[in-house]
Amino acid sequence: MKKIIALLCVLAVLVGITSCSDKNSSSSVSTADTIITSAEQTVYSAENIAFPDNYKKCIALDYHDDIKLIFTRSNNTTAMQFYDDKMQISDVVTLDEETDHISSTACVLPDGSIAILYLYAAYDGDIKNVETYRSNAEVSVKLKLFSADGKIISDNEIKAFTDYYQFGDDSIISISPYGGSFIIHVRKGFADNRYLIADADGNIDGELTSDKQLGYIQCTDGSSLMYDNNGWTYSDTEEIRLSSGLKPYGEKLSLSGKVFCGNDEYKAFFTLANCIYGLCQDDSLIKLVSLNESGVAEVDIQSAICVGNSRFAYIGTETASGRTVFTLLTKRPDDWKDTRKTVIIASISSCDDAVWMYNNTTEQYSAQVRSYDSNDELKLDILSGDPPDVFFGEASEMYKYANFGAFENLYELMDKRDGLKHEDILPNILSAYEYKEGVYSLPTSFRLDLWIANSEIIGREHSNWTLDEFLDIAEVLPDGMYLGSKNSSFTSRESAWMSLFSSAVTNFVDYETRNCSFDSPEFIRLLEFCNSFELNENYGWGNVVDSLNPQVAMQSREAELAVKNKTALLQEIEINNYGEFILSPHRYGLYLDDKYTYAIAPSVDGRGALTPGNSYSLISSSKNIDGAWDFMCYIMSEDYQSSFNSGFCTNKALFDKELDKWLDYADKAKLSNEGRYVTPEYGGYDDTEGVIPPISAENKEYLTSFLASFTKLNVRDSSIYDITAEESSSFFAGECTAEQCADMIQNRVSILLSEQS
């Protein structure tokens, strides 16, 4: 009954009802803004901590006698990874548990023991029938307690849990210690929150529903603290009373991450506005860590611990990059001053993750971003004698800046300096970026825009086809076959033109000589083809597609199988990483027996064009070329590029490792008899009828060689795109001939290129 009263008091806080104040000072706080001070030193150094093998998800971090990460593996087991005092991986303990649970959430108790809440959904039918599965699964929830060294203490089912939880509709958000019991947070949607009090034996003593999302934590002095995004208060589990309202954090601060356990000096720690604050014994807050001043990228901290008196460790997701990071923060000495030489990064796009990671690897240089709204502003700084040291921006800008000598030739620096060498970079990247016998810019990642075809229609000898080869095939399609599916760009003249032209623009512009050839026979033939090929009917879904609509789902699958069923010649695909490159054919029913052909966007010389991410260049007039080169060496290193998982990397050693890893992974891939990839870790369902076809040596060689054939840069020049879109629309409207359209584009782009030279 006392637990019910406590929960009712929580509701009273949320709706502003006044309740009695506690006599105990630890559970009575004023609703006035919290007093805030700042530590003398709030700058910390940051370094990456290694994740355990087979890491999937963190469910808790803990520091008592040992530093440990409680995590789930990809095979659904839960383990405790211990770290030594230097945060190096030590012993690992696998917990004694069943592995058939759907999900788990955990909390660490004040004595170092661990409570894990497991959700089970037993069902003998076909889980692909989602509605039936949700309705008929036998749902249960167990609360298991483990000792600090991973031994089982108790194992109890939460009784009548389904009275408060609907499988498939609700989510179990968290479990938190609450005196001698636990608070389990269950949420339906975004606003319907239920807070259940349960004891270790599995009995639920009460329920509170609220539209507020609350968190709970047990402080080091034994009191329980309740908080939301805007304030906090105590929930004294001894007297079951609360204060009359939430105490604002003050100074317009709001929660930006987790509240986590304190130490001997502080009751708890709050993550507010990308800083870590300690809750003092007198209930004031003191700013201990400024993540911004420490050069750490903005991060959503999901789990954190204080390691001793001068270090913090956290796992979180970076706001800009979306990367999951495990970071150790170490307080710098009180008299520490940043005497590192500044490396100024000129940025028209965000490169915060590269900057903060670099800054935490060197004591000699410190990178800082100087943001620009336009290239004209950057040029003005260069010409006025206030240049940055590094440029970060679109690859197409390389030609313009290199032409007036603003960028360093990286080949010359590789030959003269230690660090980055030619052999460290993927050869086709160097080929794509070569300009005037040098390389003036380099990316850290790239993607591929390519086409997939049925190998019975287009053999693999056409993978690197020329524009004429493509048109010879596309102009005489078999009856009943279209260029693309009903869900492709080949359902209108304009979209087909932009698709084909965007892929072929590098065929008609030579940035080195600043010449173009839009009046060539190949370009005119492409224009005429786009005005004459048979259009496929569009599904007409509109701008917003309801993927749950059965008709839309059926049509989407029909479009995916169009190449296999020989109703479409090609399917355009965007390849962002190794896994997609190797396994994407499964989506189109072409994986089994190597029934697919990959093809580049048609080119004059048969070379594929890769699409890079933003690229880095060194400014020739830099006042800190040593620091600029040191930064370039770092961002092109295996160490940096292994920190993100988006795109193909450009470091050759890492590229080769990742490609081999995914080829090996694909050898163990499980597919249905229809060739659909179904391994659960890839987002599918386990399928007992699946097969595991190894990749043949011949196919591995084909994939590797095809990747290496992308040796040109796919330049996305918006000025040229605008000109061609405007002039081609007149042609498709019948207002001019293909020759006249080509002449207009040739004249306008020639003037543009001459102005940029």
Keywords:
757 residues, Neuraminidase, D-Maltodextrin-Binding Protein, domain 2, six-stranded mixed beta sheet, five-stranded mixed beta sheet, 18 helices, disordered N terminus
How would you describe the overall organization of this protein?
With 757 residues, the chain is α+β, with helices and mostly antiparallel strands. Among the domains are: 2-331, Neuraminidase (6 Propeller); 341-443 and 614-642, Periplasmic binding protein-like II (D-Maltodextrin-Binding Protein, domain 2, 3-Layer(aba) Sandwich), CATH 3.40.190.10. It has 18 helices and 41 strands. The strands form 10 sheets. Strands 33, 36, 37, 38, 40 and 41 form a 6-stranded mixed beta sheet that branches. It has a 5-stranded mixed beta sheet with strand order 1-23-22-21-20, with no helix packed on it. Strands 15, 16, 17, 18 and 19 form a 5-stranded antiparallel beta sheet that branches. The longest helix has 19 residues, at 738-756. It is globular, with a radius of gyration of 30 Å. It starts with a helix and ends with a helix. Residues 1-29, 238-244 and 679-689 have low confidence and may be disordered.
